[in-house]
């Protein structure tokens, strides 16, 4: 690969510059020299340098034409004239009409779910639609049900955010006061019962909040989902559609899924087929694992704005750690009146042991294990960086200084090696 330090690109109206930063510890700086451009729906400020680091896969789109400069080494960089942006803009315009109608009729705005297999640009389309909505003065709710590659909190959770300003180019949507629920695994398939339970709960809480926030309610909800669309994955999607009472489902690049949803959804749900962008980059499972790791690192250490987490020891005896899901027994072995699936959402006490090293623990808002723990949202996360069986202590990495709140901690399957 030849080293390119400075590149200038002239973009015609309705085209985009795509580039990727691959090499380790690489930094590429982007600057709009003239004209207007946007990045996944956020306007770029002319003359302002934006930094992108290893792993970034970016498209700078222009409606009116512009000149862009890149400084640093990119793996690929090319201008694409074929993009689905006009189609996406039309979707935004249709949603906007529904918001106007909701305002006039005092009803709720459109609840839209974005679905499709892996690597078709679901998260990107969600971001574009949210950005366009907020640029029109709306306050939409962003829901992320993707427990593997989501954009709210850390992997292994689902969550929601009220979007009050466009996503920052370098840091995404502001993560202030998100509503987050614990799942603890990378795929819904690891505990379908628990996944559906928390999706229903999140939908309930959002419906309640919308009742008290007219602006958010008329602006509507945009839901990003996991890329698992076959078999049980399909059932998970239809359950989420029901739970959130969606009005619109945008299906990216999968005709089979589109037809199944058309067949199975009630008539009032609009199922729309959309092309994927040729720019969406496929990611290997190693890259996905890296992306998960990066999200956890950002949670503790920040991205552009640095955070300074605390590290301290906690006695085993001061901790109440639980995992969700007891081993499943056949119905015939269950106590009377209990289903085998009920075991999957039961809390099981976990005694600290060396196996907890590097695991994430969710800090629940629940007061105790009997306090409908799965229905409580999360205060945040800590990471176990070391276990000392002799001194009977855990070393904890935490965004907050000690002491750890004396609440329920939920064990996640996700691990993070803190070598910051
Ligand atoms: P997942 O299955 O993991 O949920 P997804 O369908 O949500 O994936 P995205 O995360 O939206 O897909 O996109 C995958 C990658 O492609 C991201 O890194 C994103 O930045 C990049 N990408 C999306 N659109 C473009 C584009 N037009 N040009 C270049 N890169 C793009």
UniProtKB/TrEMBL annotation:
Subcellular localization: Nucleus
The name this protein goes by in its record: Protein CLP1 homolog
Ranges in a coiled coil: none
Domain Clp1 C-terminal: from-to ranges: 308-418
Domain of life: Eukaryota
Gene Ontology process terms (BP): mRNA 3'-end processing; tRNA splicing, via endonucleolytic cleavage and ligation
Entry's family note: Belongs to the Clp1 family. Clp1 subfamily.
Function (record text): Required for endonucleolytic cleavage during polyadenylation-dependent pre-mRNA 3'-end formation.
Keyword line: ATP-binding, mRNA processing, Nucleotide-binding, Nucleus
Domain called Clp1 P-loop: residue spans: 116-302
SUPFAM superfamilies registered for this protein in UniProt: P-loop containing nucleoside triphosphate hydrolases
Gene Ontology MF terms: ATP binding; polynucleotide 5'-hydroxyl-kinase activity
Record-annotated Clp1 N-terminal domain positions: 10-101
Annotated PANTHER family: CLEAVAGE/POLYADENYLATION FACTOR IA SUBUNIT CLP1P, POLYRIBONUCLEOTIDE 5'-HYDROXYL-KINASE CLP1
Cellular component, GO, one term: mRNA cleavage factor complex
Binding residues for ATP: 16, 57, 119-124
């Amino acid at each position: 690969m030849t080293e390119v330090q400075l590149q200038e690109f002239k973009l015609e109206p309705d085209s985009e510059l795509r580039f990727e930063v691959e090499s380790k510890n690489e930094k590429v700086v982007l600057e709009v020299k003239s004209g207007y451009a946007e990045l996944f729906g956020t306007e770029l400020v002319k003359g302002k340098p934006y930094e992108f680091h290893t792993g970034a896969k970016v498209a700078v789109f222009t409606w009116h034409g512009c000149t862009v400069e890149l400084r640093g080494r990119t793996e690929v960089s090319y201008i694409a004239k074929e993009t689905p942006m006009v189609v996406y803009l039309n979707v935004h315009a249709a949603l906007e009409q529904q918001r106007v109608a909701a305002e006039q009729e005092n009803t709720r705005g459109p609840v839209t779910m974005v679905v499709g297999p892996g690597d078709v640009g679901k998260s990107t389309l969600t971001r574009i639609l949210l950005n366009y909505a907020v640029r029109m003065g709306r306050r939409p709710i962003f829901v992320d049900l993707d427990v593997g590659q989501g954009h709210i909190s850390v992997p292994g959770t689902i969550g929601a955010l009220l979007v009050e300003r466009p996503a920052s180019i370098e840091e995404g949507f502001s993560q202030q006061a998100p509503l987050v629920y614990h799942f603890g695994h990378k795929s819904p398939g690891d505990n379908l019962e628990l996944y559906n339970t928390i999706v229903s709960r999140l939908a309930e809480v959002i419906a309640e909040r919308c009742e008290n926030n007219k602006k958010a309610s008329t602006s509507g909800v945009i839901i990003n989902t996991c890329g698992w669309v076959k078999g049980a994955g399909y059932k998970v999607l239809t359950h989420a559609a029901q739970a959130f009472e969606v009005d619109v489902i945008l299906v990216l690049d999968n005709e089979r899924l589109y037809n199944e949803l058309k067949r199975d959804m009630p008539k009032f749900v609009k199922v729309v087929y959309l092309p994927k962008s040729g720019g969406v980059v496929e990611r290997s499972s190693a890259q996905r694992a890296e992306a998960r790791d990066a999200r956890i690192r950002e949670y503790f250490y920040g991205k552009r704005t640095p955070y300074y987490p605390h590290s301290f020891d906690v006695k085993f005896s001061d901790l109440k750690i639980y995992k969700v899901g007891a081993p499943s027994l056949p119905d015939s072995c269950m106590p009377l009146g209990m289903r085998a699936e009920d075991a999957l959402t039961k809390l099981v006490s976990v005694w600290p042991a060396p196996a907890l090293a590097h695991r994430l623990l969710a800090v629940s808002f629940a007061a105790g294990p009997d306090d409908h723990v799965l229905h409580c949202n999360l205060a945040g996360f800590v990471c176990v960086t070391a276990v000392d069986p002799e001194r009977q202590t855990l070393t904890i990495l935490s965004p907050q200084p000690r002491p750890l709140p004396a609440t329920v901690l939920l064990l996640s399957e996700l691990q993070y090696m803190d070598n910051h």
